[in-house]
Amino acid sequence: MISFRNVEFMYPNSRKKILDSASFNVAKGDFAVIKGSTGSGKSTILHLLSCEARAMSGEIHSGPFEISTIKRKHIPAYRRTIGCIFQDFKLLEEKTVAENVAFTLEVQRTFKSDMISKKVEEVLERVGVANERSSFPRELSEGSKQRAAIGRALVGEPLLLIADGAASQLDDETASSIFGLLASENIRGMTILLTTSTERFFSAFPKSAKYFELRDGKVDGFLPVS
Asked: Distance between CA 169 and CA 152 in Å, rounded?
């Protein structure tokens, strides 16, 4: 599903490689976790996967796409195969929860309004914010904002869900429930890749989860201490 092969990345005007011949693989249906300290490059990996950044060298594959060399005109089609969850939620403040979730489908212009409404309602129920469908982001708790953001990522039925620091702004109880939600989506067959800077939520992840650590630009697999 995801393959990084000797990927190198450096930000402009920097002398330090964020990724230095980084290689790892995530199979279809995996629940994969990348742990690393702040500034280690976790977000960079997700930016590369979402085509918000381009590697200096190496190969990156996501599903049938070779995104290290993808042409600009093919990026929209690729992005429709992935769902993204961000640390700061990136909800549209002038739209309600339901409108935020629907927006993902509206920009694709491939669904009629009645189908969009049906898919949105199903997803809102799934992620637990159906009762807040008419609320605006400013009216939501941090946990509800994250659930709404997850709903927006899921409504397009992506093959891959990537989450950047999904619990960074949440208390432990709320974070555990969010990770439980992601684990349930993984059970449904979705491939999930998330980043974290701590091991304290590992108990909420599936027992079959695959773990990686990002350090000094390299990605290595590891087994967490039970």
From this structure: 18
